[in-house]
Amino acid sequence: MKILNFGSMNIDYVYVVSHFVRPGETLSSTRMEIFCGGKGLNQSIALARAGMEVYHAGCIGEDGDMLAENLAENGVDISLIRRCPSKTGHTIIQVDAAGQNSILLFGGANQLITEEHIDEALADFSAGDMLLLQNEVNLVDSMIRKAKARELRVVVNPAPMQPNMLSAPLNLADVLFLNELEATELCGEREPQRQLFALRARYPRTTLVLTLGEHGSLYQAPGGETYRQGIYRVPVVDTTAAGDTFIAYLLAGLVLRLDTAESLQLAAKAAAMAVSREGAAVSIPRMDEVKAFPV
User: Which of 199, 229, 238, 270 has the highest local Cβ count within 10 Å?
Assistant: First the structure.
């Protein structure tokens, strides 16, 4: 199975702070670093480090060569990346003393994808292949519909949650990854079990995965079979790419035909390793590291 990730690529400017900046406050950071990031890039690198055959499609500006190079260095096919006359997407990330993050996003070139680019990217993929999407690029609706017309398996992580996702054809998704806030936006419920019930009514043919932070995750297949996975507790350094790592390793486990419980355990271990390290893409572990993770 080939995996096409039509996703964002961002330059992350990371500032380590004692606490998140409050309204009207000027705060000095103790350290500043620049990393390659973006949900799309992070998930592609995580998939590649998990041993998957992954292709990344998207747009960068004239200042984005480091992002394409980073993907290629990690074994991701970058032939479907296009350069646009715009600034590359970037983020301003605050990381506090507890390792939590606050992120300000500028879409830049990530918002310049065209219908022609989508058609070109999908041309080499067919039934049984997978399309992975997030909501940091434009034309997600079109990507979902065109991929399903080609009988691809569509996986959607609608983050960051924006109004366009409320009308997107998420009912066509084969797998939907949501955190608690995103699930609430879609179904109006706040308690995870009630969220699953409401989302199941809306998306009866979709596998639902709720990521619940320190409470782990819930997985429910279309037939109602449900699994709960806890987290592996480690010292938290930076949570920036934890969700992206979890998504990629869960998908990798399913592609490798591990059973659902094993796939969830694999994803939870990988996410635990990611939060114990600084940075976004640089924090993502390789499959051999995850397999060696002590339980």
Answer: 270
Annotated catalytic residue: which of 238, 244, 259, 288? 244
What are the pLDDT digits (tens) for 18-52?
A: 999 999 999 999 999 998 999 999 999 999 999 99
- Residue 206: the pLDDT is 98
Place of tokens 């990031």: 37
Residue 244: active-site member: yes
Cβ neighbours of residue 153 under 8 Å, at least 6 residues apart?
Answer: 128, 129, 130, 131, 174, 175
Contacts of 163 (CB under 8 A, 6+ apart): none
E-strand ranges in the chain read 2-6, 10-16, 31-37, 53-60, 77-83, 89-95, 101-106, 130-134, 153-157, 175-179, 207-211, 217-220, 226-229
**Positive or negative CA dihedral for 197, 199, 204, 205?**
negative
- Under a CB-based contact definition with an 8 Å cutoff, are residues 195 and 187 in contact? yes
CA 168/CA 164 separation, integer angstroms = 6
- Nearest CA to 141 out of 157, 165, 160, 119 is that of 165
CA distance 205 to 172: 8
Cα(127)–Cα(249) distance, integer angstroms: 22
Domains along the chain with CATH numbers: 2-21+30-286 (3.40.1190.20)
User: How many Å apart are CA 122 and CA 147, to the nearest integer?
Assistant: 7
Per-residue confidence at 163, pLDDT binned at 50, 70, 90? Answer: very high
